[in-house]
Amino acid sequence: MKILYNPLHIISLSIALCLYISCHQKSDSQVWPSWANDMVIYELSPYQYVDSGGLKGITRDLPRIRNLFFNTILLQPIQLRDLASNPFNPSSQFAIQDYNEIDPKLGTSKDLKDLISKAQQLGLKIFLEWNIEETGPHHLWRKLHPLHFRSSEKIVNNRYNLEYVKFNLQHENMTDLHREAFSNFANAFNFDGFMIYGNANPINNLIQILRSGLNDDPLLLSASENIQDGIGDGKNSKLFDLLTTVYDSGKLSTSLREHIQEASQKHWLNPFIDYETNLNKGTDYTLFPNAYKYYIMFAYILPGIPWILNGQEFGLTQAINAFNNNSLLRKYHFNEDLFRSLNLQKKNNPALHQNLGQHNCAIVSHPSDVLAIERTSDSFYCVGIFNFSDTITSFKLTKAYQNAYDLFNKIPVNYPANSELKLGPYQAVMFSNVP
Q1: What angle do CA 210, 211, 214 make, to 5 degrees?
Q2: Of 404, 399, 414, 413, nearest to 435 (Cα)?
């Protein structure tokens, strides 16, 4: 089913802004819903499910995902995409042809509605990725609005020109086109929210204008770190680079310490490796064979929202291709217990909730290559201790912790203050007073 919109009914940006200001009653910055306080994002590649039924296959897999205590599904685009004869961005999940047409390889609009309904029945929130900048070379607007793209040149310096598949967001009618396409799609389906891509350098009021055409008030998150329009602080893009530097050097860096303090003032999305990083850099398992599990744990202890790529619960040994039709099912699910324990603690422990404006996060270890981070809320706490070196390292805690519980073994633990403790190479411990 194709959701139709009339590209001829486009008004100017100035008129749209006036209408928005005078008629639209929604707040300039969205209200953070209470259900987002313990959000954990599970990014999913729909084309990995083509061989198992596409959208229907995802629907069948939802109980398994829910049993790992993930509570938010982030779908990569499910619209009709370019693949054959697309040398511009062949591995991009955003190489689509039409914002408002579901790819028949994945299913129908009914299949999508059934998926959303089933997810919500299971208590899962469901989001969709939406890119306002990048598209496929055969996008509908290439014929209807060729001047709305950054370039009409396919080849530049004997290379395929990536500007050919990117919109010129500064064009006077571009905002109106996006608003109409976005509202038509969003109003046809009951998504709980959207992850907006391509707004690293947004034009003023873009997010408000996108939101102004919606019947409901879904949560809009941003995959960019540079955020305007009151939709949060976006993706923590520094995290991967900082952990790479630490891993390569085998030493805790000042920059990582400073980043913890910065994170305590933000509301970041914390992907250690999301699809974009996985595509361009590789998998966590292959990049950090000795440390990837405690890097995942580190992304959970930081203030913000953990963001997991589907397949990480299996132990990814190959980079994911969003256009691959093969399912990601593996015989060995190495990390399922890790995520189950982390997600359950995120759900049950207020210390790991968003608690906007109350990010109680502190370093509670004496300087060394071992770093202990404490998150607190009232009487609740959760502590993660990480050895960032490749040797057994001594450290001391600045506080005593009694009658706590190890997150993974569920056994009681006690840690004294100012006593010498040791942690093995690339080893991490997490404990809290919430069993």
Answers
A1: 105
A2: 404
399 Rama sector, left if φ>0, alpha if ψ -120 to 50, beta otherwise: beta
Distance CA 289, CA 69 (A): 25
Kindly list the distances between the CA atom of residue 250 and the CA atoms of 282, 288, 391, 425, in Å, as whole numbers in the listed order.
20, 12, 9, 10
pLDDT digits (tens, 9 = 90+) for 32-89: 888 998 999 999 999 989 999 999 999 999 999 999 999 999 999 999 999 767 899 9
User: Would you give the DSSP letter of residue 191?
Assistant: -
Which tokens in the block code for residue 325?
Answer: 């039709």
CA 213 → CA 126, 137, 269, 358, distances in Å? Answer: 20, 27, 25, 32
Q: What is the pLDDT of residues 321-355, one digit of tens each?
A: 777 766 555 556 689 999 999 999 999 999 999 86
> Whole-prediction pTM value?
0.89
- From the list 233, 171, 169, 250, the residue with the least C-alpha distance to 206 is 169
Contact, 2 vs 98, CB < 8 A?
yes
Sort strands 72-75 and 125-131 into parallel, antiparallel or unpaired. Answer: parallel
- 153-195 confidence digits (pLDDT tens): 999 999 999 999 999 988 888 889 999 999 999 999 999 999 9
DSSP codes joined into one string, 391-407:
S-EEE-BSS-EEEEEET
- Other Cβ atoms less than 10 A from the Cβ of 50: the count is 19
Q: Which long-range contacts (CB under 8 A, 24 or more apart) does 152-158 make?
A: none
Residue 373: strand pairing partners: 363, 384
Distance CA 429, CA 206 (A): 43
Query: For position 173, what pLDDT does the model report?
Result: 87
Structural tokens at position 50: 């083509």
φ/ψ of 170, rounded to 5, equals -85, -10
Cα 380 from chain centroid (whole Å): 26
Q: What's the rounded Cα separation, in Å, for the pair 52 and 326?
A: 8
The DSSP line for 260-328 is HHHHTT---EEESS-HHHHHHH--HHHHSTTTHHHHHHHHHHSSSEEEEETTTTT---S---TT--S--
